[in-house]
Design goal:
It is a single chain. The relative contact order is 0.20. By secondary structure, this protein is mainly α. 58% of the residues lie in helices and 0% in strands. The longest helix has 17 residues. Helix 2 crosses helix 3 and helix 3 packs antiparallel against helix 4.
């Protein structure tokens, strides 16, 4: 995907354009999984969305990372992370500072 995450999601959704029902047609690589897991667990821990939705965004993030042809593969994950941030904002963010507090404790 890389550019149009919403288009990618909508073209692969099980029904309509519901972002909570994503059918994944590819699997992310290990490096993409590790990067997305780290950044999402640190920054979206307090997000009030279902675990399935969270995992779907993590998978899409990892696929975007792995398919990226840019020198810095992280740049291709921006669309997934921005969509997740929007989804979190719509559903309530919980405690947005909890992840930062935990990382400062270590």
């Amino acid at each position: 995907p890389g550019g149009d995450l919403l288009g990618f999601i909508n073209s692969n959704a099980l029904s309509g354009n519901n972002l909570d029902n994503i059918e994944v047609i590819a699997e992310p690589c290990e490096k993409g999984n590790m990067y997305c897991d780290e950044i999402m667990s640190r920054n979206f821990q307090g997000c009030n969305i279902t675990k399935d939705t969270y995992n779907s965004y993590k998978t899409v993030c990892g696929i975007e990372y792995c398919r990226c042809e840019d020198a810095d593969q992280r740049s291709c994950t921006c669309s997934a992370l921005m969509q997740l941030a929007r989804k979190c904002g719509e559903s309530g963010c919980g405690d947005p500072w909890s992840g930062r507090r935990r990382s400062e404790e270590h």
